[in-house]
Structure formats: C-alpha cells, structure tokens
Amino acid sequence: MIVAPFPENETERLRMLGLYRVLDTASDKTLDELTGLAAVICGTPISLISLVDKERQWFKARVGLDVIEWARHLAFCSHAILKDEVLIVEDASQDPRFCGNPLVTGDPLIRFYAGAPLCVPGGFALGTLCVIDRRPRRLSSHQLEALQVLGQAVVSQLELRRLQQDLHSLEKFLPMCAWCRSVRTDDGKWQSLQSYVADMVPVTHGICPVCSGEAEWGEEDKDDSE
Question: Which of 39, 103, 176, 195 has a 20 to 30 A CA-CA distance from 73?
C-alpha cells in the first residue's frame, strides 16, 4: 500500500474546502440523485461524492455504503485529487498502490475504482465523484465521459450552494429585495448590489489574473485604457 502525498496546494485547497461549508452537512436531494445516476450508468454497486478533508474523506452523498467517512490515508480519492483526469483502478488487488489497503483486503473489498476529481475555480480538487465495484472491471468510453459530466454537475451544485449561502449571509446584514437582490440604502433608496458594493468599498478597477488571461483587447480598447 502506498499512501498518497499531499497536493502541492494542500493548504489553499483545505481553505477552499472550508469556504464551501459543506463538510458534515445534511443530505442534498440533487447530489444524492447525481450519485445514484453515476452508479446506474457505470453499473457499480457503490457510488460516492467524497470530500477529502485534512485527515479523512467524508461522503456528502453515497450509494451502496453505510459508513460516512474513511481515514484519508486509506482513501483512493487521496490519489485521485492529485491529477485533473479520472483515476481508474481496474483491479486494486493487483495495484501496488492499493493491494495492501484494508479497504481492499477487507470490507468493502474494493477491486474497481474510478474517481472524477471535483475541481472548483482556481484548480482546487475538493474531492471526487467516484464509483466502486467489488470485482475487477473496466468502464466504456461513454461511461467514462458520463462520469466526468456528472462530476462537473456536482461542482456546479456545490458552487450554487456556496452562492446561496453567501447571499444568505449578506441578507443578515443588508436589507435586500428577495426578488431582484437590490439593496436598500440608509436614505431609503434602492440600489443594485454591484453598485452598492462599489460605492461602499474602494475599487481599483483592475482585472484579475483569470479574466486578464481570457480577455482579448483590441487596439482601440488599449488606447482607451491608457
């Protein structure tokens, strides 16, 4: 058995995981359905949304498994978050990384594993959407593609959840319209959230590294910016 090393961005990754405020939360119907769909498409008895914490992997959603977490050093997902592509283990009993793992030699007798990293903006892999079988097997190209698409859908749900929580936090401090999200100022007027923040906080009008890498400036735009 080989224990996975920590990702190079482990400190930042754990901080990002904390910002999503999803660890140890109640079940989510949409995430449960995505997990079940992954099991059906891939034909596996076990499917998990696994989040890799500091010393454990915790299951936000699970099919075919009763436990809610495993120790991180045993987790196949600890290996999966080290790369961007899906980690596939066709027969764990023959893989030097996992053949001595208690999850392979004992319950649940893992043989097959495929884990799609859940990469959020910034390139941080919070965990995986994974499927597990108790017998060696392979995924077809269509099953592999579906697992990746479902993994992206899980990330979208996590992003939506985080946005809703952020808005809820703002609503605790700001009088905000429940429909259009406009903010009522101290003088009783209504203002868009974007303009309200711009008025309240000094803004440099700079461009973040992500946007600057994607923006295509024409000559006329460059002249205006200067």
Answer: 39
b/e string for 92-126 if b means 16 or more Cβ within 10 A? beebeebeebebbeeebebbbbbbbbbbbeeebbb
Q: What is the pLDDT of residue 196?
A: 72
Q: What is the pLDDT of residue 170?
A: 60
- pTM of the model as a whole: 0.75
* 162: Cα separation from own chain's centroid: 11
The 3-state DSSP class for residue 175 equals: coil
Q: How many CB atoms lie within 10 A of CB 39?
A: 19
- CA 223 to chain CA centroid, Å, is 40
Q: Sign of dihedral through CA atoms 208, 149, 92, 102?
A: positive
Q: Which residue has the higher pLDDT, 50 or 224?
A: 50
In degrees and rounded to multiples of 5, residue 98 shows phi and psi of -130, -10
Closest CA to 85 of 8, 145, 35: 145
Q: List CB contacts of 189: < 8 A, sequence separation 6 or more.
A: none
